[in-house]
Amino acid sequence: MTDERLDTVAIITDGNGRWATKRGLIRSQGHVAGAKRIQPVLETFRRIGVHNVIMYAFSTENWKRPKDEVDTIMKLIYKYLVDVVEDMIKTDKEFCIKFIGDLTPIPEPLKSKCIEVENMAKDRAFTCSVALNYGGRDEIVHAANAAHAAGHETLTEEILSKYMYTGTTPDPDLIIRTGGNFRVSNFLLWQGAYSEYVILDTLWPDFDDAAIMKAVGEFYTRSRRFGGLDR
One of 14, 138, 171, 173 is an active-site residue; which one? Predict the structure, then answer.
């Protein structure tokens, strides 16, 4: 059983489309339902002492989805930043948001809005990192190229880590995947090297406090050896 404090959690927010299909709804309604879960989930993790939550919003592979679904997701993210996140940053002096991933192909005005809300506050006690147009392999290539451009001829783990999109955000102690699929989906391949994984059948729009505590409870039953022996 681990005696380490849970500081950083990452979430693969899977299951919006399936949630909608099960209810006879269109997929976009599942994404709307999923967006409504974000703030309550952040509040719960914060209440139990977590300082960093990394959420997988849109991957580099998600561009393969139908254009109308991609457009819906982009508009939904923009609306959420305007309607919810801006107010959270203004009223909650401990909250800030940042984006990890390559924002270059993200359409305007969403890209500008991401930069705007990110610059509203930084380095606060609780950070939500949103993985937008993010891919783990892309991130490693980006970091290697950035390190090379900065003059590093020989790379080490410490140097490469500095150039990851996550920057100074600690590696996740726990990675939760909702929706029941047992795969990492190109998410935090570098940072998740020694994360504990918990896979839940719960679809993302149903990811409530009970599901959170189930995942957290499972984390605290694990023995985190990091390649060594039990202490």
Answer: 14
